[in-house]
Fold:
Amino acid sequence: MTDLVVEATETLGPLSVQLLAAGGHPVGGRHMLSSSMQAATFSDVEPGDYVLVATRPTGEALTRPVRIAGERTRLALTFPTGQRSQHEFLTEAAWRGLVPTVPGNTTFGLPLPAGALPATGSAGLALNAILSSKRRFRSASVSADKALTLYIWPGSETSPLLFPPRISADYLQLSFSPARAWGVRAVGLLNAEGTGPIVMIPPFVDGLELFFIARGAATDSGAQRVSNPSAARVPVAIAKPCDAKLADLLSALGAAILPGAADLWVKGDDPSQSARALDYLLNKAEDPIAATIAGLFLARFQPKLVPLEWVRRLAEITAPFMADGTVLLARYLLRYGEANSAAMHEIKILLDRAGRTSCVFSSTRAQLVQARRLHGFSHSSPSEAGERRPSPGSYLDVSADAGGLEAFWGGGPESPGRTAKKGRPKGTLKLLLRNGTFVPAEPQVGTRQ
Structure:
């Protein structure tokens, strides 16, 4: 009998690892690898030939043959041999399996090959289903030379971007500066009518990379989810926090496929080197965005680990600028709070407050809508000024996919749907959509592929 040690770098992101013997029989259970747990050991394995299967949150599987012999065998998971990212700026996203790879001898900067999807896993499958449906019923989702303008809300004389946007045929990359991101609420690619995909931007302490997908932005005919197969959300962007551990959590939040996802952050051989979700939640005053992601993750996979008072304090900290902490508190009170009239009144106040504030993460929106319906809220809630504002459900009707971030089709952060919003900030960039690809409207200076 011998041991197999499987290692991976943090750039690969979270992986669910399983060892298969001849005939597909699993050996040694299932192990998790992540940015905090970069090694796992299969103990007391019979020597011989096996296949290691590592599954990403997207559902993509990496397979590696391995021959186990001697006292201990080591296997290092690396980027697929002979493959690389389509562009240099997509290298880390490709390592994480968020975007497809191309053969290593391919010239940098070329458009994706015909038939290749710009996103992998469930996002790619959803986009393929939507585009296939449009082609089948001859309702073209792309058009020639559709003018788009990039907007960043609320607008500022100082750009929140580390460098100018990078444009390729398939992607538009935005890199948000850690020091400047606190002033940003959302970004959008709006057409001449003033509507398009909107993505909410959390102020990540270490910054955020966002990649708009050209074919997703071109599929504006799929804005109403009821017109899509299985009401799928159109993937319009890919989000990658610069903190690898937070990127793990964000990808796992929406992972319906990743087996054993609860083990990602609640187990670890070396707590001093493992940034656990509970640690993020404990330090909520220092980094409320990281704490919110951790709280949402634990609420899904390990809700009993979280002290209610921690969630209550997180809701107080985040209430002024986003609804996610408030909704999280309401969920915990519904599940673990007392079932009396005072508790129900507090929950209703929380849900009313959350309905007046923007959600930042996509998982929050559906939970907010469901909870409000259970508590008898009307379709639209009046604002403090007595005006009517969009209901939380109206965002859900036109929701899009942006890698775990709140995204929808609309005219601005508070204008879901086909209605343009007046008083937009100054446009940051103009570009064109041409047959499902991005084309610079003006020559770009200082960009690189």
In short: Residues 137-143, 267-275, 382-386, 444-449 have pLDDT under 50 and may be disordered. The first strand starts at residue 2 and ends at 8. DSSP finds twelve helices and 22 strands in the chain.
